[in-house]
Amino acid sequence: MFEKVLKDPVHDEILFDDPLLWALVNVPAFQRLRRIRQLGTSFLTFHGAEHSRFAHSLGAYETMRRVLYHLQRECGWPTDPREIRLALAAALLHDIGHGPFSHTFESVLGVQHEEWTHRIILEDPALRSVLDAVDDEFALDLVRVLRRESRYPAVESLISSQLDVDRMDYMLRDAEATGVSYGLFELARLIRSLTYWDGRIYVKRQNLHTVEQYLLARYFMYVQVYLHPVTVGSDVLVENILVRAKDLIAQGERIAMPEPLRRVLQDDMEDVSWYIRLDESVLLYAFHTFAENPDPILRDLAERFLHRRLFAPVVRQGSTPVDDLALLRTTAKAMGFHPDYYVSLRACKIPGYDVIGQGLLLRDANGRVEDLSQASKLIRTLVPSREERLFLPKEMLDPAHPLSARVRSIAYSAF
Amino acid sequence: MFEKVLKDPVHDEILFDDPLLWALVNVPAFQRLRRIRQLGTSFLTFHGAEHSRFAHSLGAYETMRRVLYHLQRECGWPTDPREIRLALAAALLHDIGHGPFSHTFESVLGVQHEEWTHRIILEDPALRSVLDAVDDEFALDLVRVLRRESRYPAVESLISSQLDVDRMDYMLRDAEATGVSYGLFELARLIRSLTYWDGRIYVKRQNLHTVEQYLLARYFMYVQVYLHPVTVGSDVLVENILVRAKDLIAQGERIAMPEPLRRVLQDDMEDVSWYIRLDESVLLYAFHTFAENPDPILRDLAERFLHRRLFAPVVRQGSTPVDDLALLRTTAKAMGFHPDYYVSLRACKIPGYDVIGQGLLLRDANGRVEDLSQASKLIRTLVPSREERLFLPKEMLDPAHPLSARVRSIAYSAF
Amino acid sequence: MFEKVLKDPVHDEILFDDPLLWALVNVPAFQRLRRIRQLGTSFLTFHGAEHSRFAHSLGAYETMRRVLYHLQRECGWPTDPREIRLALAAALLHDIGHGPFSHTFESVLGVQHEEWTHRIILEDPALRSVLDAVDDEFALDLVRVLRRESRYPAVESLISSQLDVDRMDYMLRDAEATGVSYGLFELARLIRSLTYWDGRIYVKRQNLHTVEQYLLARYFMYVQVYLHPVTVGSDVLVENILVRAKDLIAQGERIAMPEPLRRVLQDDMEDVSWYIRLDESVLLYAFHTFAENPDPILRDLAERFLHRRLFAPVVRQGSTPVDDLALLRTTAKAMGFHPDYYVSLRACKIPGYDVIGQGLLLRDANGRVEDLSQASKLIRTLVPSREERLFLPKEMLDPAHPLSARVRSIAYSAF
Amino acid sequence: MFEKVLKDPVHDEILFDDPLLWALVNVPAFQRLRRIRQLGTSFLTFHGAEHSRFAHSLGAYETMRRVLYHLQRECGWPTDPREIRLALAAALLHDIGHGPFSHTFESVLGVQHEEWTHRIILEDPALRSVLDAVDDEFALDLVRVLRRESRYPAVESLISSQLDVDRMDYMLRDAEATGVSYGLFELARLIRSLTYWDGRIYVKRQNLHTVEQYLLARYFMYVQVYLHPVTVGSDVLVENILVRAKDLIAQGERIAMPEPLRRVLQDDMEDVSWYIRLDESVLLYAFHTFAENPDPILRDLAERFLHRRLFAPVVRQGSTPVDDLALLRTTAKAMGFHPDYYVSLRACKIPGYDVIGQGLLLRDANGRVEDLSQASKLIRTLVPSREERLFLPKEMLDPAHPLSARVRSIAYSAF
Fold first, then answer.
1. Which of B137, D93, D187, D305 has the most neighbouring CB atoms within 10 Å?
2. In this structure, which topology does domain C4-225 adopt according to CATH?
3. CA-angle at B93, arms to B88 and B96, nearest 5°
4. Which of B182, B220, B377 sits opposite D381 (nearest CB)?
5. pTM reported for the whole predicted model
6. Which chains touch A (3 or more CB pairs under 8 A)?
7. Which CATH class is domain D4-227?
8. Which CATH topology does D238-310 take?
9. Model confidence over B166-219: pLDDT tens digits?
10. Residue A40 near residue A101, CB atoms below 8 Å
């Protein structure tokens, strides 16, 4: 009997009993996820948040394994061994395209990590050779599931929806690592609340409150952890570093940096292997070299990140008037800060519950179906919302500086 | 009122109310500890073990804060604000000299991380300027405490003994991160079991079983986590990489690698700032570059580490005869593996309870003192022990290889 | 130094350092709380819910101790040692008037447990002698605090409001005992979110989400645990037993039962000591004797409770029409069930957040005050709501019985 | 599909999928276990220890379910559905014969709870009718398993040995309820360490340390919780109450007490239904009536228990000389305490690891078997040991009493 058991702080034990899935874990492109933090720059806010996407991917796999075990026992689905492998492999590999501090790269380069996930699955030879051992279509089907092409609608919604194994694992794992209780919910019961009917996944009507707890836990994780102003400010800093490096390259400067990063910044990625070589050790090492670069802006920004002298966040209600922003930029310049890299505005979106397109469907004992938001007043309040934030060097707000009064009056005017 | 509160997965909250100590946290040399894993290569065995020395250092500080609060309430010691700061600063900074995968460096270069801790405290200008704000002697006194020079014996034993704030924090933190219960013990009660008398720390006789639990938890962490054969094998791999790089440099080869690592390998560290620039991102990036080095041994070893193709551990009872080892090395060579880098023997020491020199003293209500080992039969069994292990590439044991039978017969002969 | 430390599953350790408060713990009227379950009949739904009001009272005391420690450090209040003792004693004794399955008694006899709390504090000689050792007014002031007479408004709101030490402890304790995560929230942070200003307690505006989490945890505990239909059905059974016994007494029957219960049922309680002798062992023993009573109704109901053959709950949306209820009662009679004891309707109130009268006030750094519901959309959805439930013997719904179809058609008509 | 899921604080969820086993849960004799505390009088030491034998019995069942699932997957045993039911039913019912504060009754009456377990299984009509539905031999086979008659040796050792589902559940449950970490161990891993070979259960040699942790956790639970002097003193008090009541009956006194207790004390139990009616509510009610009995000794002892004025424990090293005890008894008499009920000596046995007869066998990958104690030095130190303790009213040690000096000099002489 093939069996590998991994000790896990969230699920206690993670079990592999299919050699194919274990082979996927041992592919270099997957091992690379050990060098990508699950929560990006959050470790600068919550010092416990050092857990990796590797751990989360294993956890998403284990959650899928338990979900399928439940659905098989209770609903007789899935029975097709290939579909089961597809579901488990998709859970395991869904994040394989994440890069270092992923969201910052997406913002700077305009490429989604999902696209990298699809490319790696299709193009990485080591990964491909494992997947092709199933059959010629398996890698492609995996990408189809991840792209939600509706060939395997039930599996797809377990992989990517408002109630998927990805979220189920990461909320518990992020809560555990940071030490907060905000993300906790009743996992075993939530899994048992799922039901399969005619090709789709539903939540049993009687488990309404269990799903409410899960969605509210998600809300609290967003407002308390994921969108913490210090974390968003750290992301902004990483983005500004990358933008500065990109701009310098575009200006023809020769900037010392690891080759995989240069390729990414120059959008020269015909070969996916360059991307796979890019992990957080490479990016942090790039920041080390930037911290010794002659360009004062690049050097200063990199040092700020490495030594955690982060931007100050100013949370704003409503949008920032164009004039205000212009005045802030002028003042920054007057204080010696290049506004393109030192005055940043970000809109943060709290996702809430999204009824459009892909709501969660409740199904009662009589087969009646309704959207979760119809049944729950609480959930109806969780409409997606946004908040605007301004990020500046702390020095610009320091009363010791003669111009800081002007900055403060603009920055806090929106209140 | 000055107050900074950090959320922590072990102690719930970590509290700073002295601006001096908070200033120490914000020194670059301390922030660097975010980029050093607490458990070195253990993340390759327990995927949860990604927590940093930064988090542990904060936890050791918080534990010291609670110990001092207890002793002040119950024993009226310490009262001197400078001694309190000394104790707290020592707890915070005790690991500041750790390098990436620290123990492997110590083994390769023969320099203890403690020496780096002392040098950084004395030589890092940013750290020094904070410490000197207390008084001219403070930095030096800190080093004296860490060196156990017996000027502050009670503080010293709280910082470094068999029952110190370092171990109290790391056992709980390592247990929490890996998800095992082996390292758990009753922290609050253990703290209350401490007492101060006439310049020394004792354990109250009535709390014998609480200390037993703590020492057995430590034993289990060693046998189950710290000395896990897969982890030791990962350390061996790192060591062999570093030794190979060092050997190539000594042979006059020009090996591309980050400057701080070159300085360390060449023992060219007159300036402590080079050492401070060396963290795990730098080392991992070095491994990335090694993985593209023309030297086949360096390249192969680096790839093994990055892709987690680790050495196979063979645990042995008793010592390995010299002849056996020689034969193994010859066979390795015949199989195409340079024995200096592919056949490694390591002796692992399980520390147990050490009665010599620095045993724990119990003190009963009548002031009678005895060594812990006199009172506890259980503890007397925890004598330090050692175990020998052999590490080889998995290929050498693979039955598919014609020479593997010989390797196996030697490797497993000791049983 | 006086110090008593109790090990606690919720707060780890509970600390007494005031001999007066410890003396209160050792008064028989307080020890009696060991024989009263915190969650009444919930143990019939959640088998873990066996924890006592004794444990909860200690926990409320410990929570108050931590709240006061925080407020003293941060706001310089309270400073008066008598007020501190008053707050701690009130937290400790706030539930001393609870009887066995308290809420059922309140419903049957129309006496609130709060009145018993006040009487016991004022009339129990052992308790009184401890309290009078402070001063002549102390016992009376304690009752004034519990009655919220506004002499000590800040203490009063910490004892009894929507954010008091009572709820803070019981939510965590009930969650821990039952094993559900619904009631978890960030206690330490919630405590630090409290602030004192000009005689009142406020929540800091910046901690809005921490209070949201706490109030939503409360909501989930109500819908998932406190108002669980099986639990409410168990309460109904206890009530019907007590009503039947009361009715039989009123009819002049001589029913064997423990004397304290007879006194309570006959409302013959001029002496509070009778009430103090009434605990759950006495009531359960009464049920044992009822289970051998010649009256078939009393006997049957008592056996149902002891052997957990509970009433079936039928949850209804909207109110039950008078005609339906009349028809149900007639049918019950025809099936051999006396409708007064076997057909019960209960309205359950989910408390939500109550803005009227005693809302929670947020206070920002500039001293601006607003009601929590103004700041939080989520909280505004937590308006108190009610749900009606019908409780019947399972046999009445059993398809095997010829009349059950009629019962079912009425019972489920409201859907 | 039949499925009942119970929420549990230890195992998260307890699953029933066999209607027969669920029917056993609903038998009155099993529901009665809700009214028996798992840890007897320990709640007087650890206020969290209110959990019931009902909860523990469910937990032992769930642990057995998981053990069997593991063994079936890995070893292909058991396959016989009847043997599986036997194992699960035995786990569920193994404690059904426990009475209130069981160990005190065993001591006073000389009847083991195991005998009651066997009688109830064979004689209780409701239970019997469920069991007989399997087959005529099932109830008898159940008793044979519980008696370890070696017909089902593997099942028997899972039910009752040094590594059985009983201990696995109660250590975790008792640790969780009291809030101590002493009893924690790696349950899932311990279960996976079990293996079945040729009709017997073994522990895999490679899991040595996992069993060590479990056995040491057990040691710590004994020294810190189960044999806590305050708990043993509470047991002594219950015993002395029962002995006094028995003595008074023997002297022909008519003592008011519940009938089931009278029957037990008079050894008049031809019908097992009397025993089933005896639970902790009945015993506590008896103590309430004793607290109003004219006999001053019975009254005083009962009040001491109800109001927690417990005996003072004096822990002794070595045996108490006969002369000392005689002198103590004389002094007690002189102080007005009847020595038969107020001077009690108890020997407490710490079980340790028992190699004789039923040691745990390790089995390595090559099939070599050895006793656990051969492989583990730690375990060899866990030899059973005993400790003698003397219990007296606190008043006898009170310095205010003129004779207390003599008591103290005798009581503490053994040190």
1. D93
2. Hypothetical protein af1432 (1.10.3210)
3. 170
4. B377
5. 0.96
6. B, C, D
7. mainly alpha
8. Growth Hormone; Chain: A; (1.20.1250)
9. 999 999 999 999 999 999 999 999 999 999 999 999 999 999 999 999 999 999
10. yes
